[in-house]
Structures are given as structure tokens and as C-alpha cells.
Amino acid sequence: MADVLLQDLWFHQVEGVVIENVVSDGELVAVRARTAVERAVCPACGAWSSWVHSRYVRRLADGAVGGRPVLIELKVRRFRCGQHPCRQATFAEQVDGLTVRHGRRSTGLQKVLERLAVMLAGRAGARLSHALAAGVSRSTLLRLIRRLAEPETSTPRVLGVDDFALCKGHNYGTVLIDIETRQPVDLLPDRTTSTVARWLADHPGVEVICRDRSTAYAEAGRLGAPNAIHVADRWHIWSNLAEAVEKTVVQHRALLREPHDSATSQATAALENAALENAANLDHSSPTGPRTTGWHSDRVREKHTAVHVLFDQGIGLRTIARQLGLARNTVRRYANAASADELLVGRWTGRTSILDPYKP
Prior knowledge:
The chain has twelve helices and twelve strands.
């Protein structure tokens, strides 16, 4: 009865394997088994052979039992191929559902690790595999992913097109996504119009192209799929909106009022007065001196005024840095400067803008 239970436990989906015994060796469970079929198929010519050449033991790692790793010691045979034209003189028998050629893991454990690699990939998957008492390295999991057969894909009806960084700031490619199934379709080596247009022309049937506002992708869609409808995806709409709001807030930051705080109320008033004075003195600024307008100039003057207002009250640099959200070294640099002009002399000296008359 026990032999039947063990047989069903390890080889319930495998035929032609008989368990001899199971040995618990410390932290390892060893399952000793042998093949019981009379003949095997030659992998080269497909002919059956019962001519045994030799026997040897294969050691296969299997799924853990009770938190302990399992090793299957399987006695297999090597057969001779009796077909004279066949180039395969001898071959080792394989057990369907248990072994593969040159494999050192059972088919069941191999499938588990492949799924683990697809879900978690490198280091995270390796950590989980050790917790499951089937430890493998992150490199092994990545190799399992590369060996997987590519799934068959069809041309999607709604195609998502976006770029991704191979080397951020230098090399970019294009990723194509099936929006309806949320599955990747293809990766292109660059994000040029000709490459994307060629792919669309070779895969007719795209009805909707979901993309960003890139002119290259727009032109590629017009050339490769002229009848497709172009739409902006939700992520890019929100991203563009956030960028526009941030740009607007930065341009009109002088008009925004800080929340009322007794500790910084005087600094806020000083900032507003400094902004008004800068606007009033715009026409009197010297073209050769430090700039009195512009985003960088206004920000430096505002921070310089705020730091000195708090510093004159006897507040320490560390407290000022915490209240204004600045680094302590930055606060020290502002405190040591008698005026904001000392901080603005250099790169921005003497530079004017066609927008200066309209800044106030």
C-alpha cells in the first residue's frame, strides 16, 4: 500500500517508472527509481530499439517535500539503434513527463521554475526559489526565460506604440503592445518613422493606433496604416497635463501665497515685497550687471531674502533649512552673501531676453 502511495505521489503522471525505495538523508529526500519499459525510440530516425547497450543513474532535482529538497536517482538504459543508415549509434531513453535530454531537473520542477522566472525574473525569483527549497541563481532564471518559446501573436486591432530606453539619453527602441490583451507584440530596435511604418505595412489589420504626440509615430502611422485611427493613451494625456500645470505654476509662482505660518509670515511678506521691487526696477537694470528678471534670478532673490529675514531673527541655519526646504549648505551660501547680486554674477551676467519687457 505504501509503495502505491509513493508511486502516485511522485509519478502519478508518468508511465514506465517504478519506485524502488525512498531514503531520507538529513535535509535531502532521495527517491530511487528505475525505468520499466522494454524498448525506446531513437531520437534520430524514430525507430524502436530493445537492444540495451548499458545502464547508468541519472540524478534529477524535483519539487520539495516537507520543506526538504528531493533528488530522484533514476536508473536508465542506453540503447543501440539497429537501423544501419541511422547516424545515432547509441541513445539514452527518455521518460515523457519526467526527463529531457541533458536535463538535471524533473519536468515538473522545470515548469515551476519557468513560471517563477516569468513572474519575478532575477533576484526576486532566486530568493523565492530558495524559500521553496529549490534554490537556483538569478542567472539560471534568466536563462530559462530566454529558452522559452516565443508565444504566437496576431496583429492586434488596437495597437499601442511607445518608446523605451535601451540606454537612457542615448539609445531608444519602440515597444508595441496589444491594448486589448495588454500583451507585448514586438520590440523594434529604434523609434524612427521608417522602422515603425515598415512594421505596420508588414502587419495589416491595425484599426486604432494608441500613441503619444510624437511626430515620428504620427508619420509612421500615416504611411504604414493610413486607415487607422490615432488616439492618445490615458497615461500620456495625464503626463502632458501634469507637465503643463507644472510649467504654468513655475511661471506664475510669484502670485502664489504660502500657507499662513507665524514663523515664516515675515519671510513671506518680504518675498512679496522683493518681487514687487524687482518688477519696478526692471527698466533701471544694467545690461552688464546681474540679471534682475528671469526664472533663475527671481528664485535666487526670493530665497536670499527669505534666508536673511529668518537669519536676522536669530534662527539657526539648520532650522532655516528645515523651514524653507533647502540644504544646510545652500542656506549657508545665501546667508554669507550680502546681496543676491553676488550669487547671480557669472553665467547669467549681461544676458537679456526678448521677454524681459513683458515679465512684469
